[in-house]
Amino acid sequence: MATARPYPAGDCGPEAHGPVTGAEQVRQVRRLRLVGISGTVGRAREFTRRALHDWGWLPAATAEQQAAAEDALLVVSELVTNACLHAEGPEELRIGCGPKLLRIEVVDPGGGSPAPRATRRPGRPGGHGMFIVQRLSLDWGVAHDPDSNGKTVWAELAAPPALP
């Protein structure tokens, strides 16, 4: 499922007393500028790994917690790679953590909207990134920036059970 919420993480919009969304459940946000650096995907993964460690996701105490952390790292890799391949590169990675979810956002200057390919070819490289994001996330979507041609592609993942 993909939706297009018009507000970034932490911004509840003009109706702050409406239904609770994932963005409202994020309590801590970390940002990494990615403009002009080499090894973008690896740096984004390492930044995310450090954040997950600080937030108690790693080291994982159970196989389920380990799987949740690995899913988060894979979603970061796929969103950053997608921005590298299709949107002139990512500008910023934002990771938000709350008690029930992790929100991942990748800001890029591209104007298009990513979507899972309708005709995937199993066993063939490429074209699987947004399908993977869709399968691993509770929800994901795109928020276009009205002041530029850019956008934020975001995904929300469930927090593993029994985090401190």
Q: Can you walk through the features of this model?
A:
By secondary structure, the protein is an alpha+beta fold. Helix content is 29%, strand content 22%. The protein is built from three helices and six strands; from the N terminus they run ββααββαββ. Strands 1-5-6-4-3-2 form a six-stranded mixed beta sheet, with helices on one face. The model is unreliable at 1-21 (pLDDT under 50).
Helix and strand topology:
Blueprint (H helix, E strand, L loop, with lengths): L1 E2 L24 E6 L6 H15 L8 H24 L5 E6 L3 E8 L20 H8 L2 E6 L6 E8 L6
Parallel strand pairs: 1-5
Antiparallel strand pairs: 2-3, 3-4, 4-6, 5-6
Helix pairs in contact: 1-2, 2-3
Classify the beta-strand content into a percent band.
15-25%
Low-confidence stretches: 1-21
Identify the overall geometry: globular
Number of strands: 6
Instruction: Give the helices and strands as they follow along the chain.
Output: EEHHEEHEE
Please tell me how large the radius of gyration is: 15 Å
